Every structure is written in structure tokens, then in C-alpha cells.
Amino acid sequence: MGPLLRADAERCAELEELLFPGDDPWSAQAFRDEIGAGHVYVGVRSEGTLVGYAGLAFTAGPPQPEAEVHTIGVDPAHQGRGLGRVLLHRLLTPADEVGATIFLEVRTDNEPARRLYESEGFTVVGVRKRYYRPSGADAYTMRRDARA
């Protein structure tokens, strides 16, 4: 586990294609842009190959800091081993250190991800109709209150 590097962008885009085939997966350039913007992006490797990634951005500062989980993805061949939870924890830690409220979107039909987020204190606060493109799938907006 460590920081996601600009050199990881191509592999992240490959994983996006696997994970989100019916929607608009992020491009390698989108990953390079996000990593270059100084957001919190982390990756996990197995035998030197990137198998998971996650990213978070701070969207508001004190006195009421907020953050948003941009993405979490784990190679299908490595799912079910707790890597998603490990990646999520790596995002929650810096947000908790500054007492940030955290938001994210998750497909309404992605039960495993929703259950993971709920187990970490996120609650559904709304629905975004036709949020994902081009599939038109709906997303839940979820929120986790600030923790000191």
C-alpha cells in the first residue's frame, strides 16, 4: 500500500474498463490529472502489479472541512479479500485527522460497495437519478459525519 503514482495511470484506466464497462470509465489522463492535483490517491499492489486504487479530495476547508471519495476500485481477481476496505481506510484517515465530513456516490445496484460504506459509518442522504453515463444508472449520495 502506498501513494498512487502518475505512472500508475494506465493500469488504473485498464482496471476502470474492467470494473465499469457500462459507464464512462476514467481515462489514464483523468488519473494523471487527479494525482497531479495533490489529492489523496493510494494504490495497493500484488507482486508488483497495481490491483487496487482509491482517491479522495478535500472540497472545503475549516471551519467545516469536507471531503469527497472520488473513486475506489479493486481488480476483480483480487476482490473479496478486504482490499476495498483497506483502501477506504487509507482515505478516511486524513479526512478524520482534520474532522472532515465525507461524501461519495455509489451505484444503487452496487450492494457490496454500499454495504462496505455503511459498515464504515456512511448513510444514504439522497439519490442522483441517471448519475452514471452512458448507462443512466442511479447513484446514492452517501455521507459520513466528521470524526475527530
TrEMBL record:
Gene3D superfamilies: 3.40.630.30. Residues 1-147 form the N-acetyltransferase domain. GO terms for cellular component: cytoplasm. CDD domains: NAT_SF. It comes from the Bacteria. The keyword NADP does not apply. It is found in: Cytoplasm. Keywords: Acyltransferase, Cytoplasm, Transferase. Its main location: cytoplasm. SUPFAM superfamilies: Acyl-CoA N-acyltransferases (Nat). PANTHER family: ACETYLTRANSFERASE, ACETYLTRANSFERASE YPEA. Acetylates the N-terminal alanine of ribosomal protein bS18. This is [Ribosomal protein bS18]-alanine N-acetyltransferase. It comes from Pseudonocardia sulfidoxydans NBRC 16205.
